[in-house]
Amino acid sequence: MILIYILGAILGFSILIIGHELGHFTLAKLNGVKVEEFSLGMGPKLFGIKGKETEYLIKAFPIGGYVKMLGEEEKVADARSFSSKRPIQKLSIIAAGPLMNFVLAIVLFAIVAGLRGFAIPVVDKVDEGRPAMTAGIQKGDKIAYIDNKKVSTWEDFYNEVYVAKGNEINMIVLRNGEQIKINVTPVLDPKENRYIIGIYPSLLEKPNIAQSMGYGFQQTKSILQQTAGFFKSIFQRKVSSSDFGGPVTIIRVSAKAAEAGIVPLMYLLAYLSVQLAIFNIIPFPALDGGWIFMLLIEIITGKKLDDNKVGFINYIGFVVLMIIMVLVIIKDIVSPINLN
Predict the structure, then answer these.
(1) How far apart are CA 100 and CA 31, in angstroms?
(2) Domain 118-204, what architecture?
(3) Residue 246 predicted with pLDDT over 60
(4) Where exactly are the structural domains of the chain?
(5) For residue 87, which of 309, 312, 280, 302 has the smallest C-alpha distance?
(6) DSSP states of 56-82 as a string?
(7) How far is 14 from 40, CA to CA, in rounded Å?
(8) pLDDT in tens, 126-141
(9) d(CA 192, CA 124)
(10) What is the pLDDT of residues 211-228, one digit of tens each?
(11) Is-contact 182 135, C-beta < 8 A?
(12) Calpha distance 70→25 (Å, rounded)
């Protein structure tokens, strides 16, 4: 039975890759660029279908994908080559991949909200004897800020309590139109093994389309902010290697989500779609972000970069990424993240 969940997880993650590459593919076509290959997966070819001018491939390892365009890696004297296009056209093609992942995340979060409703940062219940009650938080209070950070979703609140790790947090809640400052210190709940203050959110059970889409936007924005905080923690050396996972961890987590049901899996896929977009806009050669960085230099300076040199830089970047990917996979296998 677990094999079915793993296959479901792989299929779900493949949808994110297809969405990303479809963004590149669509804008390439709109800009008159010839697409030679549309690949799902990496490594040896399993099978493919040859279209009018594009070969559609499925490869052995479901850890990525790519769209191969004419003239992407070197200068080609052809009106339909990527290298012949203006910088702004190239930028639109490259940026379309991450943008598609953001759009996909918003839509998936909206669907999840429509199916099950969603928690909002308005207090529905306060546990007796917990820090929230002691601090004076009441049912109906709307959580507006924590430590001067705006709270738009319940997940924003949850994340700030998690990050505090038992340190006092400064909250501003709205009560009858009035802003009230409250200081509260989270405590560790031994049963759930997480820090809490003892409150429960209100649930918007049957949101309309506008409310669901609003949740999708807010949730995507919240994850962006949380990820920025995570990168900040990395630079501050507050994150250990045990907090990192790669493709194997993604499949394990996704399989657990698939086992829990289609809605949890969709929520996880939406989350991963945001992470995929963020990863791809990192300004590193071979990633979309590397291309975007170089194209912005061209647009700002008005000077064209050497296509062959750009192709070589991207090739080296691709090799480095593959080496990192192999190391991460080995780490995933030798020292897996505890998901319990």
Answers:
(1) 17
(2) Roll (2.30)
(3) no
(4) 118-204
(5) 302
(6) EEEEEEEEEEEEEETTSSS----TTSG
(7) 7
(8) 999 899 999 999 999 9
(9) 20
(10) 999 999 999 988 888 787
(11) yes
(12) 12
